[in-house]
Design a protein that fits this description.
The complex is a heterodimer of chains A (about 575) and B (about 350).
Chain A lengths: L3 E14 L2 E15 L4 E5 L6 H7 L8 E9 L2 E2 L5 H10 L1 E4 L3 H4 L6 H11 L8 H14 L16 H13 L5 E5 L7 H18 L2 E6 L2 H7 L2 E6 L2 E7 H6 L4 H9 L39 E14 L2 E14 L3 E5 L6 H8 L7 E6 L2 E2 L4 H10 E4 L3 H4 L6 H11 L6 H11 L18 H13 L5 E5 L7 H18 L2 E6 L2 H7 L2 E6 L2 E7 H6 L4 H9 L3 H7 L13
Parallel strand pairs in A: 3-8, 3-9, 6-7, 7-8, 13-18, 13-19, 16-17, 17-18
Antiparallel strand pairs in A: 1-2, 1-4, 4-5, 9-10, 11-12, 11-14, 14-15, 19-20
Chain B lengths: L4 H14 L8 H28 L5 H5 L7 H10 L6 H13 L13 H34 L6 H15 L2 H15 L17 H39 L2 H8 L4 H38 L5 H10 L3 H29 L1 H5 L1
Classes of the chains: A alpha/beta (about 575), B mainly alpha (about 350).
């Protein structure tokens, strides 16, 4: 059984640009030890160096990376192994569960064959014959609760969760002693995430494996790992037992990470999303108005009456949205929560007039949508969409000014264009706006891109916002800032919003009301406090159950109560 | 807690539904759709084949009788024989009904049925283009995947430079250069035709003779076409080399060349295959130039002769045959792509 020791490890990427050689230190002087059978989580935002650190264990970094220091598997320095010896260590002793199994499996090879390949390369432990390997492959699929028939399928035929299970099966193939999991559940639904984490955690525990797990989500790490280390700008800023890190984070960055995944039911995080600038740095709502339930009940802005959307596919009729009624009032923030495939995106497309409902109607200010080109154009000015991935939503060739001004030009809004753009950027907290006019999306951070998108929506003077997973692709520290911005827009401009999300914590953070969607129907809706603290529908309870938290871990495995932090929740 | 257990399996079924294979996407319905598309292209080609050549300048009867003393009556007589005095729509109707029976008309210049002429010239063209295509594809793909083994190494840089140079060279110029140097000057290869005139070789001697005649035209065609295959494969390999599943393959302990050959190349081949088959049409088009330079007795040379006429029935005939070949090749590309890419096959 190997232990992993990092001894003053640094990784430098050298890049050649037009201006000469650049050197970027991705990891700086990291030291820690993962004991045998230990489980260690590394947390951090994108760019913190956590993935680089994980990949350096098997020397999987790109060629322009230089690693210094010592990385010991037991007592062998990985950095000094010959290529042949290294290839034996790879997968034989340590294997990797990669991020986003969509891209980590070869798209043109059957998944069974990809598992077999690992067995063929490291033909040990009696998997010398083809039949033995075939049997082992099926056994592996069984371990991760997949039927053997899945071996004959290609990656694109499997769902995200199934692909990640295949990845785990593949990682276990050659009985490794160490598993490195790099964001194993990112991009998975909360329920699927819980299932995958459970499979991984159980296998690691039963087989006494060592686990090094990377994630941006402290609660995911907390539910699986004994220890958590936090990386920030390439340095390991904090390391300790999971419970301590989550309950009493010392480093400000750890505090921001912890706050990004609020505890549902914790009044401190209600209407108070936290940014990396520190807890309470931005008082969002004055205490008098912070009561969520007595939110301003304005006139009904957007409503759906018995809306159904059915798609005719070759395999029959698929009811994506089934008899949905909803109302969003002026100045109200409503969260629409559901798994992928629940029909929430179709519902939103219908509300925006992008999809014709097969039954029922969409009302705006009490009037049915005018489905002419002109009517829809006017409607879409008033109800603005904030899409999920800001870097994808902005044209990479357009400057910030052009991106924001485009809508103004399309709708031929009166007044000075420059002034309107500047006002919109200021409202989206990009100040001073003139400094951003000429920037292109590539030069902006993810959070700034999302602000540009929001500015583009605000420039048209909308009366309602529809946001599709507005913070799902953003880092933890930026998440709070964007949510705070949405709250400020509501307070200052009276802008209501319908927010589509799979993240119940987000609903707890900023929404007045929450609607839970499942298989095309809205199964439960009501004030956030009522629904999330006292769920009535079984599906809502299951969603809440799946939210990873240290408390949840303690509930599932009572034997590990030590992970439950004192006074939590 | 207990109320949650039964619904656990419900989530599983939701997940499984996503991955259900749609049964209707069978091979036959795919083939049907693609063949339908190809048939529509074919009909358009037939229509275009007739009208496009009617727009060509030059009166066929005048050019037929060039240099001869003919009276106006004789000209009118000729027009009647070839049906050129009829209104355009009657000519078109005749063209269609003849096409159905396989009658492509009679060549003005050769005074022989077009169908027979095309049949005679088809084999040399197929021989030339298939040999050239096979060599060009193999060379392009081999050099392409070899060059990426060490990106920026001497082989990569040299092969890219050579490929780009040859790609930029005009076909006729390279052909004439080879013809003059290796054919005329050094007399290593025959300068034209497919067989040595007068020598009635049989068996192996015939094969050897044809091979010697093939050498220069094939070299010309390969030189100007292989670069595309090489560069496209190289570019898509460079894209694929940064793909996540290659890190998985490396992490499994595969040697670098196996990572490339087993995982990167099958994926990088996908865009290349599409290009290869799309380009076979261009290859046949290029055959017109090469065959003319080397007097190769194929369809390209025949087209060249028909153009100088203009010999309308012959032009129509070669145009339709060339188009049919291209359409069939595109159909083949679709089918091969489907075989190579499970996402097209099953999604």
């Amino acid at each position: 059984m190997p232990s992993v020791t990092f001894d003053d490890v640094s990784v430098v990427y050298s890049s050649q640009t037009d201006t000469g050689r650049g050197k970027i230190a991705a990891v700086r002087g990291v030291s820690f030890t993962l004991p045998e059978r230990g489980t260690l989580g590394i947390a951090g935002e994108s760019g913190s160096g956590k993935s680089t650190l994980a990949m350096s264990v098997l020397r999987l970094l790109p060629r322009n990376a230089t690693v210094s220091g010592r990385i010991l598997l037991d007592d062998r320095n990985v950095l000094e192994l010959s290529w042949g010896a290294l290839r034996t260590v790879r997968w034989g002793e340590a294997s990797v569960v990669f991020q986003g199994a969509m891209h980590s499996l070869n798209p043109v090879q059957r998944v069974g064959k990809q598992i077999l390949e690992a067995l063929e390369l490291h033909a040990k432990n009696g998997y010398a014959t083809a039949t033995a390997r075939q049997a082992r492959m099926l056994e592996l699929l069984g371990l991760v609760d997949l039927p053997g028939a899945k071996a004959e399928q290609y990656p694109h035929q499997l769902s995200g969760g199934q692909r990640q299970r295949v990845m785990i099966a593949m990682a276990l193939a050659c009985d490794p002693e160490l598993i490195i999991a790099d964001e194993p559940t990112t991009a998975l639904d909360v329920i699927v995430q819980a299932q995958v984490l459970e499979v991984l955690a159980n296998l690691v525990r039963e087989r006494g494996l060592s686990l090094l797990m990377i994630s941006h989500d402290l609660s995911v790490l907390g539910s699986v790992c004994d220890q958590i280390g936090v990386m920030y700008h390439g340095e390991l800023v904090e390391i300790g037992p999971s419970a301590d890190i989550i309950a009493n984070p010392k480093h400000p960055h750890t505090q921001a990470l912890a706050a990004a995944f609020p505890t549902i039911g914790d009044p401190a995080s209600r209407f108070l999303p936290v940014s990396s600038k520190g807890t309470g740095a931005m008082p969002i709502v004055d205490t008098a108005g912070s009561g969520g339930t007595d939110a301003p009940a304005g006139a009904v802005m957007l409503a759906a009456r018995q809306v159904s959307v059915a798609f005719h596919t070759s395999s029959g009729v698929l009811k994506a949205v089934d008899d949905v009624d909803l109302e969003c009032r002026e100045g109200e923030i409503v969260a629409l929560v559901g798994q992928s495939g629940s029909g929430k995106t179709t519902l939103v497309r219908t509300l925006l007039g992008l999809q014709q409902p097969s039954r029922g109607e969409v009302l705006f200010r009490g009037q049915p949508l005018v489905r002419t080109t002109k009517g829809l154009k006017a409607y879409r000015r008033l109800v603005q969409l904030i899409p999920q991935d800001p870097s994808g939503a902005l044209n990479p060739k357009h400057s910030v000014y052009d991106s924001v001004a485009e809508g103004i030009r399309i709708h031929r809004l009166p007044g000075d264009e420059r002034e309107r753009v500047a006002r919109a950027l200021t409202a989206a907290e990009l100040t001073p706006p003139e400094e951003f006019f000429r920037a292109i999306p590539q030069e902006l951070s993810g959070g700034q891109c999302q602000r540009v998108v929001i500015a583009g929506a605000l420039a048209l003077g909308p009366s309602f916002l529809v946001a599709d997973e507005p913070v799902a692709s953003l880092d933890a520290s930026v998440r709070g800032e964007i949510l705070a911005l949405l709250l400020r827009l509501r307070r200052e401009l009276g802008l209501g919003a319908l927010i589509i999300t799979h993240d119940l914590g987000l609903a707890w953070n900023i929404a007045d009301r929450v609607m839970v969607m499942h298989e095309g129907r809205i199964v439960e809706s009501g004030a956030v406090e009522d629904v999330l603290l006292n769920p009535q529908h079984a599906y809502t309870r299951r969603l809440l159950e799946a939210v990873p938290s240290t408390a949840g871990n303690a509930r599932k495995t009572p034997g590990e109560a030590r992970l439950s932090p004192p006074g939590w929740g | 807690m207990s109320s949650i257990k039964p619904s656990e399996s419900a989530a599983e079924t939701v997940v499984k539904e996503d991955s259900e294979v749609r049964p209707s996407n069978s091979f036959w319905s795919y083939l049907g759709r693609k063949t339908g598309g190809a048939s529509i292209s074919l009909i358009m080609v037939v229509l275009l084949g007739f009208f496009a050549f009617r727009v060509l300048p030059g009166d066929p009867v005048t050019s037929l009788t060039k240099g001869k003393q003919v009276t106006a009556t004789q000209l009118a007589n000729l027009r009647e024989i070839y049906g050129l005095d009829e209104p355009l729509w009657t000519q078109f109707g005749l063209y269609l009904s003849n096409l159905v029976t396989g009658n492509l008309g009679t060549s003005y210049t050769f005074r022989a049925p077009v169908a027979t002429l095309i049949a005679e010239h088809l084999y040399p063209t197929l021989l030339l283009t298939s040999v050239a295509a096979a060599l060009s594809i193999s060379l392009g793909l081999w050099v392409g995947q070899r060059s990426i083994a060490k990106r920026g190494g001497w082989f990569d840089r040299a092969s890219t430079a050579v490929a780009l140079t040859l790609w930029s060279v005009p076909t006729f110029w390279l052909g004439l250069l080879l013809l003059m140097l290796l054919g005329g000057g050094l007399q290593l290869f025959p300068v034209g035709g497919m067989v040595t005139a007068g020598a009635n070789y049989t068996g192996l001697a015939y094969v050897w003779d044809v091979t010697r005649h093939l050498a220069l035209p094939v070299t010309t065609m390969v030189a100007v076409t292989y670069a595309q295959y090489m560069l496209v494969l190289r570019a898509s390999l460079i894209d694929e080399m940064s793909a996540d599943y290659l890190v998985t393959a490396r992490a499994k302990g595969l040697r670098d060349d196996l990572v490339r050959r087993r995982h990167a190349v099958p994926n990088a081949l996908l865009p290349t295959v599409t290009l290869v088959f799309m380009h076979i049409g261009g290859l046949i088009g290029g055959a017109v130039t090469v065959e003319t330079v080397f007097s190769w007795p194929g369809l390209g040379y025949l087209t060249f002769q028909a153009l100088t006429g203009p010999d309308l029935p012959l032009l129509q005939g070669t145009f339709v045959v060339f188009s049919v070949i291209v359409i069939i090749m595109n159909l083949a590309a679709d089918l091969i792509y489907r075989a190579l890419d499970p996402r097209v096959r099953l999604s």
